[in-house]
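Model it.
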Amino acid sequence: MSISDDERPKKAAAHELGCDLSLLSVDELSYRVQLLQDEIARLEEEKKKKSAGRLAAENLFRS
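Modeled.
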């Protein structure tokens, strides 16, 4: 019997946007800043890939 995606336990987010930060230590804040910077870099890289793919498709259909 397999477990569907809906039945699997959800991992807690390491950082939730807009959450209360007042109880976090400086180390925890630094960790979250790094985590978010890494995620921004990942998003920017994916954006570049998609933009390049879109440009290639546009150029193909312009010819």
